[in-house]
Amino acid sequence: MAGKALYLGPRLKKLRRDLGLTQANMASDLDISSSYIALMERNQRPVTAEMLIKLASTYRIDVGKLADEDADETSARLLGALRDPIFADIAIEPLDIEDIATSYPGIAEALLRLHTAFGEEQLALAERREGGDVISEAGAGASDPVGEARAFLAARRNCFPALDDSAAMLAKSLDSFAAMKDHLAENHQLDLRLTDDGLLRGALRWHDYHRRRIYISERIDQAGRRFQAALQIAILEQEEPIAGLVAESRLVSEDGKRLVRRALQSYWAAALLMPYRAFARAAEESRYDVEALCSRFAVSFEQAAHRLTTLQRPGEEGVPFFFLRVDRAGNVSKRLDGAGFPLARHGGGCPLWNVHTVFDRPAVVDAQLIELPDGERYVSIARTVRGGGGAYGVPSVTRSVAIACSATHLDKLTYGDVVASGDPTPIGVACRMCHRPRCIARSAPPVGREIVPARFRESGVPFDFSME
What we know:
The chain is an alpha+beta fold. It has helices at 9-18, 23-30, 34-41, 49-59, 63-68, 71-81, 94-103, 105-130, 145-155, 161-171, 177-188, 197-200, 222-237, 239-248, 254-273, 276-285, 290-297, 301-308, 342-346, 354-357, 416-419; strands at residues 191-195, 205-208, 213-217, 322-327, 332-337, 366-371, 377-388, 396-406, 425-426.
C-alpha cells in the first residue's frame, strides 16, 4: 500500500452518506479536519494506510470492500466497451482503466451508459440503411414494440450481470420444483399447485390472487414446470431491479416496455435454473454440446440454447451465439442476439439454412457450416422443438430453433469436428439482398439485377439474372 497512493474519494463519500454522516461528523469521529475529509472525497489527498485502519476500527467496516467493491467488474465492463473499433486508435492502458473504475466509479458508469446508447443508435442506423422497420429503442414513433424489445436486448448483448448475480444467490436453495414450492409458501404465503387444463382454461400458469395460490399446468413437462415456478418467483421478487433496467432504457411504447419486462423476468428465471458461472463452465467443458447441457441442468433444448446467447458477461465471456426460432411457414417468433451479427437481425428467410431443413428430421440435432455472400461463415446448430400438447386433442405446434456463432470458434465446439470436414452451405440473409447466381431455392430476384430473357435458353433456376 505504501508503494502506490490510494485514492478512494467517491467510495469514501458513499460510505459517509450511507452512514448518515456530514463531513464534520466524520472529521470529528476520525479526529481530523473537515477540510481534509473534503480533500480526500475530491481525490485531492490519498487515503493513507493509517486512515484506512481508522475507518475500519471506527465504523467496523471491511477495508477490502471499501477499496475494491465492484471495481473489478467495472474494469472488465470498461475494457469490453473500449474494445469497440471506434476506440481502436486510442491507446488506453489497462492500469488507467483500473484507476477510473476504482477512483471514479460514477464517471465509469456514465461512460458505460453512453457506450450502450451508442450501440443502440448503431443498430437503429443499420436498420434504416437496410430499409427495414425502425426497431431502435429511440426510433421515430417506435411503431414496432417487438423490434423495440429486440433492440433493447441486442444493445446489451442479451446479458444482465445484476440479474445473474441475484438468481445465483438463490440457485442452490431452489434447485427443484419442490424447493420453489416451499419458497413461495414461506416467503409469499402462496400455495403452488399443479392442475389440469379445465381450471387454467389453456393457460400455463395462473396466480389466483384471492385464494393465494399459484396454479401450473400439469400438461407441461418437468423442465417447463420448473421454469414457470422460477418465473413466478421472478415476478414477485425482481420487480425493482427489472423496473430499474427498463427505466434506464429509452423505450418509447408501453407495449415495448411490457415485452422487455417479460424478457427480463424470463432471463432471471433461466438464470435461476442455469446459474451463469456454473452454466458457462459446463458449456466450455462439454464444448457447447446443447443436449449435454440439457441433461446437466434438467432443462429443455430451447432453454439451454436460449441461455447460451447470454454468456457475454465482461471478463467471463463464452462463445457468442445468436438465437432464432421459426415455424414451418418461416415466421420468426424469436430472435436473440448476444453476438452483434447482422444475420441475427435480418436473416432467417433462406430455405437452405438448417433452421428450416430440420423439420424433415424432428427432434434430431443438426450442425451446419453456412457461408454468406460476403464470405462470412457461421456454425449453425438446429433442432425442432414442440410447444403445447400434453394431452390428446390439445393443440400443439412444432417450431425450429437454431443457435449460430462465427466459424472462428469451430475448435471450441463439439459440432466443429463434423462440419469442418465438409464444404459450407451457401445461404443469403434474404433473397432480395442475396446476389448469388443460380440458386434453385430463390423466391425473388435480388434488388438491382436485370432478369435475363429466357427466349433461347432455360437456366433451370427460378430467377436468372444478369451479373453485369
